[in-house]
Amino acid sequence: MNHNFTNDPIFPNDSNHEDVFPEVEASGDCDYFDGVLKYINQMLMEEDNLENKPCMFQDCSALQATEKSFHDLLGQKYPPPPSYQQYSSIPDQNAYNPNGNFTSSHCSTSCTVVNTFVEPNWISDQCAVEPAIDTQFASQIQPMGEEERVDHSFPINEFVNYGFEEQLQNMSSCKKNQYREVNDYAEEEPTKKQLAGYAEEIEQPEMFDKLLLCPASNPGLQDDHSTKNGARNNMEQNIGQSPGSKRGRSRKARGSDRRELVDLRGLLTQCSQAVASFDSRIANKLLKRIREHSSPYGDGTERVAHYISNALEARLAGTGTALYAALSTRRTSATEMLKAYRAYATACPFYRMSNTFANKSIGNVSSGVTRLHIVDFGILYGFQWPCIIQGLSNRPGGPPKLRITGIDFPQSGFRPAERVEETGHRLANYCKRFNIPFEYNAIAKKWETIQPDDIKIGRDEMLIVNCLYRLRNVPDETVMYNSPRDAVLNLIRRLNPAMFMHGVANGKYSGPFFGPRFREALFHFSALFDMFEANLPREDEDRLRFEREVFGREAMNVVACEVTERVERPETYKQWQVRNQRAGFRQLPLKQDIMEEVRTKKLRYHKDFVVGEDGNWMLQGWKGRIIYALSCWKPDQD
């Protein structure tokens, strides 16, 4: 493979990159998060086998919990989950060397790279999803002028619930009287069989690797719009047809022109109370009325009512665990989920801001070190790290030796660590391009079972632990007496890192009591659907897929599942602060220069996205409701 890619440009020199990301060119900065979007687009075009691969966003822990419940019902002992660990160094060839030593790469490159250590912005996500973005949605993001900028000086108590709950309290809108669409979860396409074979050497296409780099370093980038425009035209022709349209009935024919004021939030709340009291007659009556005014193709309110009522119906029928298991085992292809995820990442700045904050903080604390070891809990596709690799190559005096330990949950099947291994190959290719000595350690285990010896910390290396938004899927003390969540934090404390970068999904909907949990879940998912409604067109097929596969699946788990089967268990950032301090961590202060850069990223998006601070937490939200929070920690030596 020719690594000297500056002499063989990916795209023609006259490609109009400014049309794709006008806000990037206007600002003149190197925002390498846009390289992620480019990378995903090219990954979708180049990787034909993605159609036959399951996405990395499937919830393995939920599936294992469901399997265990059936084993318990049958009186059988549940077999232990598969685990895997591979420790390897990456020599000049694209193969893993088990000797455990650093090896230098001597791949020449004439690529001019940025002068800063780390340019911000990359992706990470749930126990099952990650990557991407589409330039098609760039027009949906509303750039903000000076007059639209948000004042961040308001106190935190006003920030937390600013306006959104009140908006939901008064939520009532005109709806077309229509029957509910056929349940999306009932119809499943035949599962594609997965091949057990695995190539020892994964050779990624050149475009696959190059597009992870900063756009400023590769100014000739452009997208192939023809494929996407064709798909969009097909979507516009088919939009408005429900799954039932295949049987000859269109959505328009099934509704009437009569409009009616309906408070869907009130109906959902009443229905949840009836479900909690096992009043099936009242619950079914309310569900019937909700179905007449909800749809996965309507506005944000109709969509959240559709998925929440699905979950209420499953809880009432006692089929929540079975339905969620079906959703977790549905083999959604990686291609489909990458396309869906780019809609989310394009419309919302959360991951852009998160990775700006995380990568800049890591760059500051590791400046000048000669050996850097990053332990990433929930590495997924590893999109956070290529531009850090690029920045390391620019350091005066040469790059440090880099080791990355990628940790994720084991996959079901013959190769539980396949996706973690592939991430290692991908990162190894980037290190070779920039002459960075690199080792990769793949671990696919339940996180609470990992021991410090599995991490293999070397001498004289700086250790950084990174975990963004994934600890919410690790069980807490309400599930098991010995909290696995605390066990993971204790493990990190024993590793004694120079910094623990912790990102949390902020939520109150993990309590044991159904009533309060349902109300908080309704607020949370209403905010997410409202966010999509304001930033993405309703007919966008990737938006529809993301809402169904991610939001809908999470809502099903939160509302319809209990005990070990309920794996969506977020906590508020204040609860995490207590938990982290109890585990022996102290919080590091926020760097205001990094916070200012994060706020600058936010200004490119809709004015209702907000960034705030509370103590040493960076808060991100929509219309004042906090969705994510990030903070830096260090083991307390006192």
UniProtKB/TrEMBL annotation:
Protein name: Uncharacterized protein
Region listing for Leucine repeat I (LRI), in residue ranges: 262-322
Segments of this protein annotated with the region Leucine repeat II (LRII): 422-454
Region (VHIID) location: 341-406
Taxonomic placement: Eukaryota, Viridiplantae, Streptophyta, Embryophyta, Tracheophyta
Residues covered by region (Disordered): 218-258
Family: Belongs to the GRAS family.
Composition skew (Polar residues), residue ranges: 228-239
